[in-house]
Fold this protein.
Amino acid sequence: MEGIVATQARVIGALVLRETRVVFGDTQLGYFWAIINPALGTLVLVLIFSSVGRSPAFGTSFALFFATGILPFQTYSKLSNGLMTAISSSRGLLSYPLVKETDLLFSKYILVTLTYLMIIVVFFTMIILGDDAPLPARVEECATAFTALSLFGFGVGVTNAVLFRLWPTWRQVESILSKPLFFLSGIFYVPGDFPTHIVKILAWNPILHGIEWFREGYYGNYDSIVLSKTYLLTCTFALLLFGFLSERLYRKKSI
Amino acid sequence: MIEFHDVRKTYQLKGVRKTILTGLTARFPKGKNIGILGHNGAGKSTLMRLIAGAELPDSGRIKRNVKVSWPLGFGGGFAGKMTGIENVRFVARMYGEDTERMVEFVEDFSELGPSMMLPIQTYSSGMKARLAFGVSMAVNFKCYLIDEITAVGDASFRRKCDLMFETKLKHANIIMISHSESSIKKLCDTACLLNNGRLTFFDTVDDALAQHRKNQLA
């Protein structure tokens, strides 16, 4: 018998490839659109905001400021939302004994994260070339921030998947609850520009910390007054632990 | 080969509780082809999924020390948007088989021809069954779990399946569910009967069939 880890790695690899085909296989150029579509969507938002004469809250390029907020945010929201139905939409696959619920979650996580990594690379290249934006000051910080935020999205997504299974209405409730996050995560403003009592409230949102972290990495001189990496990492760890434990606990009640 | 130790399995769906197994302890003997009998809804397919490991019991343990197939005879794991070839490749990758060898095998066995390049959602149920059967025969298992597959396909395909079984059964065994007495008699050495949460083993297929018939009349 070969090692369990090797088998699961192989299964997850096969699932990732399969998922790419299932999700993007319908159209010509398939996966290309998965990258280009959100990138263009963000570009449209950038053009609208900059055409109404909004100047960036930080730096000289509005596109860059907006992108450093919206792209990490979208990574998070795609994960937290997409993972919710990762198990239920691939239920048929569970009849292969090799495929476990957690494999479906992991493969979805890997696919979404890699896709957004590609989007981020494509988009920032576009801005750097097109809008004369600076190169990232500390790439490794950006990468860590992105990873932390994606893992946070993973934790929320797994928790969502369990809640959705136990209570299908959760999907609707979650979509309402997560709506304000777009405005609360510091995507188009610098949290430090707000009065202290508002900043204190905003600081409860872990996603905001992820975006602040990403910006500190990208702009060499962006000093966030709220950023607590420990807070984001603690929330991430707690949610992952909670999510996977409850997944294990309620696995048998799946059907 | 496969051992059940005090396995309980129940379902609760919309407040209706269904018992599939009440504390089953049993050994599915090695080197025997076993038929599973039971009326519709007795839980035969669930028992099959438990044997495969695709489903977890409520309590108890299931041990398998041979390479067991997935329950064969459904296209549940196929993605409708993917072509036949892509679905084959997926299974090959998952089981660590050579993808191209497997595609070749399935193409040859299922005789789907150019349809292999079309998305599965365009297939008829007979075509899907051909593909599903081809895929599972392409992987070398020690124990094949067969859920009513012999009921699908046309006469020539069924002949082909029988031939394939004959070759496979030299090195492997099957556990099968079937409502067809003749196919159970043909392929199985022994049979067991699932009734009211209990699984009873019989020495011969005929004994099991006799008891099954009696249960159905009662």
About this structure: Chain A touches chain B at residues 2, 7, 10-11, 13-15, 17-18, 21-22, 25-26, 92-99, 251-252, 255 (CB under 8 Å). The longest helix of chain A spans residues 101-130.
